[in-house]
Amino acid sequence: MDKKRILIVDDEQDLCEILQFNLMAAGYEADVAYSAEEAISRGIGQYDLLMLDVMMPGQSGFELAERLRAMPQTSQILIIFITAKDTEDDTLRGFGLGADDYVTKPFSVREVVARVNAVLKRNQPTTTLLQYEGLVVDQNSKTVTIDNNAVEFTRTEFELLALMLSCRGRVFSRQELIDIVWPDDVIVTERSVDVNITRLRKKLGSYAACILTRQGFGYCFK
Q1: In 55-128, where do the E strands start and end?
Q2: Which of 32, 43, 107, 174 could in theory staple to 16 by disulfide, Cβ–Cβ 3.0 to 4.6 A?
Q3: Backbone angles phi, psi at 51, to 5 degrees
Q4: Of 166, 164, 174, whose CA–CA distance to 218 is shortest?
Q5: Who contacts 65 (Cβ-Cβ below 8 Å, separation ≥6)?
């Protein structure tokens, strides 16, 4: 997977270097710009996330964010403000400009990296289609097709299949399957898991053999 690219925009050189070092150590590509004008000259559209100081010589971080949100090519870029402006009005203005997070100085570098991780994670595109050869599970429409033929599954059967297909090779114990798939207010025995797995295999036809039983451990999709 390609590394996410982050641009740190702040006129404090030492702070930029610290953030850059720690973000690179966390697995990101991180560049630095010491003003809004320099950031623009770098081609902001190539970055996944901007870390913007608010108070900078020339154009402020708020002004830069407003400008970026107004342009179609940069309107969706992720923005985290990192600033000493910590009043409620400042924070509300930042989020009003479409900030994805707002961090006030002084801060813990570890916390900032954790916030970057969280912002990027929650903005990852979600995959609604799970597929193995001719077996397709659509988590959005809650449908299953096998070799282009629609097959009806109960809610429990569907959830069991989707869970194991999304974590291929992982063995789930019966208790794990109960905890994840069945509602908390329903009393379920491990025997119920076995019964549903048997029904699931029957409906899978030629793909039934993909649901493996690991004696003494549980089930997996292999």
Answers
A1: 78-83, 101-104
A2: 32
A3: -110, 110
A4: 174
A5: 52, 79, 81, 94, 97, 98, 99
SS3 per-residue string spanning 114-151:
HHHHHHHHHCCCCCCEEEECCEEEECCCCEEEECCEEE
Q: What is the pLDDT along the chain (222 residues), one digit of tens a residue?
A: 468 899 999 999 999 999 999 999 999 999 999 999 999 988 888 899 999 998 888 888 999 999 888 887 788 889 999 888 878 888 888 888 888 888 888 888 888 999 899 888 887 655 578 899 999 999 888 899 999 999 999 999 999 999 999 888 889 999 989 988 888 777 888 999 999 999 999 999 999 999 999 988 999 998
Distance CA 10, CA 195 (A): 60
C-alpha radius of gyration, the chain, whole number: 24
Contact status, residue 177 vs residue 155, Cβ threshold 8 Å: no
